[in-house]
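Fold it.
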Amino acid sequence: MSLQDGFVIIDKPAGITSHDVVAKLRKTLGTKQVGHAGTLDPMATGVLVLGVNKATKFLQYITQGKKAYHAQIRLGQATSSDDAQGEITSTSDTSNVSDQEIRDFLATQIGSIMQVPTKVSAIKINGQRAYDLVREGKEVDIPARQIEIYNLDVIEIRRGEFLDIEINVECSAGTYIRSIARDLGSSLGVGGHLISLRRSLVAPFSLSDCSSLESPEIRPLASEISKVMSVRNVDLLEVKELSFGRSLSASNSDGPVVALAPDGKVAAILENREHGAQPVAVFIS
């Protein structure tokens, strides 16, 4: 079994699921304790952050972070999944759609907005995944959720048999780029779907941090975790207190804090509570 704790940043290739990547790493690294932060659809490529052993406990804090994508939208066709993997449900002429109309709508997406997730998604409705309900032929009604798009740049607009738009998006967790494609097409009355998606950032990790699935590089938890959350150095007495699950004096930072022992190892995750900094996960004994 792999005893190393850390993150593996993979540039996921197209055609495989995020779970396929997890399964491959479990076999390669010799440990079942592998998980990922933020699913990428099979069609999508780019940054997929995985935690190994103790680092799996920290993935929830990475999932909540900022994301960045490079995407291509096709106008003139709508699909059942709002991307190229779904069945085409309508085809429309786009000759009357102007570049300015495209730019004007996409500008409305920037900021804090209410977005309806795509129906073919992993969102649970009454305990069932939305995509399972769709496969069963059931009607799916997913309520809009508040998300934030920090930046959306139109890189290129290409006209041919269809109208394709290339964009860069920086956004909060929970944003569906497929929904942007769907809503753009709907607003213009021609339908739209996503034809490619590449994730370039899962903060704080970018494409430059990636290793290949064939030769995964484990980035040590103790050295990488300060990029994700606040760090608190604890002394040996405090380490002993944590080993018994006892609280420490309140941390200077609000929110989750990682406690580092004098030997540099990750000792615990702390959160300020009524009686001080309470360990919510302890990694020492």
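The chain has a mean pLDDT of 91.
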